Amino acid sequence: MWYIEKKTEVIIMTVISTKNAPAAIGPYSQGMVVGNLVFCSGQIPVDPATGSIPEGIAAQAERSCRNVAAVLDAAGSDLGKVVKTTCFLADMADFAAFNEVYAKFFTGKPARSCCAVKTLPKNVLCEIEAIAEL
Prior knowledge:
This protein is of the alpha+beta class. It has helices spanning about 55-75, 95-105; strands at about 1-5, 10-15, 30-35, 35-45, 80-90, 110-115, 125-134. Helix 1 packs parallel to helix 2.
C-alpha cells in the first residue's frame, strides 16, 4: 500500500495481485486501486495456471478478457463496472474477430481505444487494459 500526501489529503493506492491472472513480467503490478477506481495493467493471453498461450485471435482475446476479469475480481470489481479499456492488437486484420469475443465480456460497452502495435510481449496477438469502478 502506498500513501501520497497532497497538502491536506492523503491518497491511498493499493496494489492488486492475484494468482488467477498471469504474474507481471516486468516492474509493475497487475493492478492498482486508487479511490473508487481500479486500474488494471494490460493483460496478455497467458493462462495463469499453465503459462501457455492459446493459438488464434479468438482464443487469445478470450484469455485476455478472463485475465482482466480475474484482476478486477481480486480488487472487488468486475467487467460490468469497467468504464474504459485500451486494446492492443498485433494486426488490425484481427479487429473484427477480436471485437466478436470482446463484446461477449464487456457487455456494458465501456469507452475504448484500440490500436495495432508492432509487437506485444511474448509475441501475443492482443492485450487489454481496463479502468473500472469498485
